[in-house]
């Protein structure tokens, strides 16, 4: 049977929203489409075919200029929902000022997947293991959405209401893009992931860190840390952040952060990822890596530039 009847490539946000409204929930937004057939098969398995496609139409948003842009807007960096992981990895601007996002997008799938998969798709699927999502949480990003005819910015964490359950409905709403504040002096980011190398490189755990150091570049004044997947939705490791505030990044403070993580983060056993005990031990590995790297980048802006060149 056919999987859809019509395929549209609108050239504007207004045109895309008009198509969605005209189909009244029977059409679906797609971008890279890397999970499209998987999703459609799941729909057909849950509700056996009754002679019509799962979707009457697909609305491909990759021809909409506003969704394909990356812009430096002074205080903010904006990234369209249709920007691919490869575009992010190749961005010299992002490599220099938002290394965690580049590092996380660089481990998604293989090159062929990264060439078409989008940051918006990573968020819209609302899976807690999303690598790009993990870094957007650490960057305190906001999402630009069109919902119920109203365009607004929401905190990135509001996009997730459960495992695979998004704030936006892909048959009625539109995810337009993201923005986050440009890191300033004394700020640094880092991302690291432990994964199974077979097949699709399934993440066991990922950790993204943003740190701000004091004027002397000695002590942490603010921190945002996201370790995932450890819950139905991406979460900030607030107890770990609190353990770091006011401390230098050294063996003692990192150990305190690790103990706070062990006390408050409870990864479960997953037959596809690893046991709970193994994943709990890997939290220590990831925190050491990311905290040290983020602090080095915060202390020395040239380190960020050298890291950018290396990538």
What is the strand and helix layout of this fold?
Elements: E1 4-8, H1 13-23, E2 27-30, H2 36-46, E3 55-60, E4 70-72, E5 76-80, H3 85-90, H4 92-97, H5 99-105, H6 111-116, H7 119-124, H8 131-138, E6 142-147, E7 150-155, E8 160-162, E9 165-166, E10 174-181, E11 187-195, E12 203-213, E13 220-228, H9 238-244, H10 251-264, H11 276-299, H12 301-310
Helix pairs in contact: 5-8, 9-10, 10-11, 11-12
Describe the structure.
This protein is α+β, with helices and mostly antiparallel strands. Helices cover 37% and strands 25% of the residues. It contains twelve helices and 13 strands. It has helices at residues 13-23, 36-46, 85-90, 92-97, 99-105, 111-116, 119-124, 131-138, 238-244, 251-264, 276-299, 301-310; strands at 4-8, 27-30, 55-60, 70-72, 76-80, 142-147, 150-155, 160-162, 165-166, 174-181, 187-195, 203-213, 220-228. The chain has a five-stranded antiparallel beta sheet. Helix 9 (238-244) packs antiparallel against helix 10. The longest helix is centred in the last third of the chain and has 24 residues, at 276-299. It is globular and about 60 Å long. The mean pLDDT is 89.
Total strand count, please?
13
Q: Approximately how much beta-strand content do the residues carry?
A: 15-25%
Mean pLDDT: 89
Q: Could you estimate the helical fraction of the residues in percent?
A: 25-40%
Structural class: alpha+beta
H/E element order: EHEHEEEHHHHHHEEEEEEEEHHHH
**Overall outline:** globular
Q: Describe the oligomeric state of these chains in a short phrase.
A: single chain
């Amino acid at each position: 049977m056919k999987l859809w009847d019509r395929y549209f490539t609108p050239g504007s946000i207004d045109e895309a929203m008009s198509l969605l409204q005209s189909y009244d929930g029977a059409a679906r937004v797609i971008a890279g489409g890397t999970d499209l057939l998987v999703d459609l098969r799941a729909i057909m398995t849950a509700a056996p075919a009754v002679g019509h496609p799962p979707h009457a139409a697909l609305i491909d948003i990759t021809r909409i200029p506003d969704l394909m842009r990356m812009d430096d807007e002074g205080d903010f960096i904006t990234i369209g929902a249709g920007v691919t992981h490869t575009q992010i990895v190749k961005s010299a601007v992002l490599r220099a000022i938002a290394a965690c996002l580049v590092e996380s997008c660089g481990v998604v799938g293989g090159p062929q997947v990264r060439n078409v998969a989008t940051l918006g798709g990573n968020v819209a699927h609302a899976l807690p293991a999303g690598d790009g999502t993990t870094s957007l949480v650490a960057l305190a990003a906001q999402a630009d959405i069109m919902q119920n005819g109203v365009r607004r910015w929401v905190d990135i964490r509001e996009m997730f209401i459960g495992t695979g359950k998004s704030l936006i409905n892909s048959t009625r709403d539109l995810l337009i893009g993201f923005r986050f504040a440009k890191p300033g002096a004394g700020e640094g980011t880092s991302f690291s992931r432990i994964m199974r190398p077979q097949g699709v490189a399934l993440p066991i755990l990922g950790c993204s860190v943003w740190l701000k150091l004091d004027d002397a570049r000695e002590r942490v004044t603010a921190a945002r840390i996201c370790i995932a997947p450890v819950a139905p939705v991406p979460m900030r490791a607030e107890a770990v952040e609190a353990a770091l505030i006011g401390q230098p990044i050294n063996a003692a403070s990192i150990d305190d952060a690790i103990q706070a993580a062990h006390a408050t983060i409870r990864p479960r056993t997953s037959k596809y990822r690893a046991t709970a005990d193994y994943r709990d031990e890997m939290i220590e590995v990831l925190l050491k890596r990311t905290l040290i790297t983020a602090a080095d980048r915060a202390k020395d802006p040239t380190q960020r530039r050298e890291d950018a060149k290396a990538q």
